């Protein structure tokens, strides 16, 4: 059962656009999943439509809407609620004043943030990060997102673009990334990165995937059946993520790493190598007491975090958004 107060939450990623009502305890209701349209205006129109539909549904059930929270890929100016830029995982998704657009269309106060930050906020408010002052949240999906808490506050940076951890270079001579850089960890350890790597270096593995598209899920399925190339690819991918994370640990000295997102199901072939690489490469004593945990929120961290932004803002300001 939802409480009387709910936030309308939207989560836009590279392959899904999701909407739900979320109460103050982080419980979801009326969850819907859509394939995002390909162009900016179509995405905006769908978001406005989904918010309007969710608002009507909430009102029909006598629930008080306290705000809209939007989690989105790309670089977000949190203060203005503007998507400034994005990678090609969400084509054409830049210079979008989505906060103003939603508020003018629906007249519901709105907050917007990067999906990695939203996952971190969800952990801080509802998840494994409740008691951690310094932790890193890593969201593993089509891309790699993240959020970093330092001394109990989320790290935003000078222009609110901090914690683009998926775009840390792990191979200076690596392939061109969708962000414009080269050899980013996202090119090796994300869902899209696994597919790229498989197609470029594991043609025999790709031929083994019969009757479905090449995906991280399909690769993990072959690994579970003992396919040696799938096992090797997942291990290499996990090592790349572990090496990148060791660098973040050395810089920020967190007490906790929280992993969430659709790639959590990749299992030991990926995460065993991730853990071992991280622990072996992070400096002592930084890694000695470091906890590495899977999120209890799993695939829902981004959308729950979008709602958590609303409730967090309410608590900090003792008012509506």
Radius of gyration: 19 Å
Structural class call reads alpha/beta
**Ends apart, CA distance between termini:** 24 Å
Strand order of the largest sheet: 3-2-1-4-7
Per CATH, the superfamily of the largest domain is: ATPase, nucleotide binding domain
Please give the CATH architecture of the largest domain. 2-Layer Sandwich
Major sheet characteristics? 5 strands, mixed
Name of the CATH class of the largest domain: Alpha Beta
**Helix percentage:** 25-40%
> Count the helices. How many?
10
How many beta strands in the DSSP annotation?
12
Task: Provide the low-confidence segments as ranges.
Answer: none
Description:
The longest helix has 25 residues, at 228-252. Helices cover 40% and strands 21% of the residues. With 321 residues, it is of the alpha/beta class. The protein folds into two domains: 5-118 and 300-317, 2-Layer Sandwich (Nucleotidyltransferase, domain 5), CATH 3.30.420; 128-295, Nucleotidyltransferase, domain 5 (2-Layer Sandwich), CATH 3.30.420. The strands form three sheets. It has a five-stranded mixed sheet with strand order 3-2-1-4-7, sandwiched between helices.
Which helices and strands occur, and which strands form pairs?
Layout: E1 5-12, E2 17-23, E3 28-34, H1 40-60, E4 64-72, E5 75-77, E6 82-85, H2 98-106, E7 110-114, H3 115-126, E8 135-140, E9 144-150, E10 153-154, H4 186-189, H5 191-201, H6 203-208, H7 216-224, H8 228-252, E11 256-260, H9 268-281, E12 291-294, H10 301-317
Parallel strand pairs: 1-4, 4-7, 8-11, 11-12
Antiparallel strand pairs: 1-2, 2-3, 5-6, 8-9, 9-10
């Amino acid at each position: 059962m939802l409480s009387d107060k709910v936030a309308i939450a939207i989560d836009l990623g590279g392959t899904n656009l999701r909407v739900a009502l979320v109460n103050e305890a982080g419980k979801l209701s009326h969850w819907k999943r859509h394939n995002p349209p390909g162009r900016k205006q179509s995405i905006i129109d769908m978001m406005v439509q989904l918010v309007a539909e969710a608002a009507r549904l909430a009102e029909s059930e006598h629930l008080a809407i306290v705000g809209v929270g939007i989690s989105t890929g790309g670089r977000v100016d949190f203060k203005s609620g503007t998507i400034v830029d994005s990678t090609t995982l969400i084509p054409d998704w830049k210079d979008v004043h989505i906060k103003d657009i939603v508020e003018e269309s629906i007249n519901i106060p709105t907050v917007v943030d990067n999906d990695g930050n939203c996952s971190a906020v969800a952990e801080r408010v509802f998840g494994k990060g409740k008691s951690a002052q310094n932790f890193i949240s890593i969201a593993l999906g089509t891309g790699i997102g993240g959020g970093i808490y330092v001394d109990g506050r989320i790290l935003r940076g000078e222009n609110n673009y901090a914690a683009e951890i998926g775009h840390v270079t792990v191979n200076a001579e690596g392939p061109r990334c969708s962000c414009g850089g080269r050899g980013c960890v996202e090119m090796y350890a994300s869902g899209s990165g696994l597919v790229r790597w498989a197609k470029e270096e594991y043609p025999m593995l790709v031929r083994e995937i019969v009757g479905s598209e090449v995906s991280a899920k399909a690769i993990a399925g072959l690994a579970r059946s003992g396919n040696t190339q799938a096992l090797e690819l997942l291990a290499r991918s996990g090592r790349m993520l572990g090496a990148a994370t060791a660098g973040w640990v050395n810089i920020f000295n967190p007490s906790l790493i929280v992993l969430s997102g659709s790639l959590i199901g990749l299992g030991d072939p990926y995460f065993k190598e991730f853990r071992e690489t991280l622990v072996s490469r992070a400096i002592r004593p930084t890694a000695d007491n470091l906890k590495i945990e899977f999120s209890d929120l799993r695939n829902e961290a981004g959308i729950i975090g979008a709602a958590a932004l609303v409730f967090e803002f309410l608590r900090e300001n003792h008012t509506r958004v």
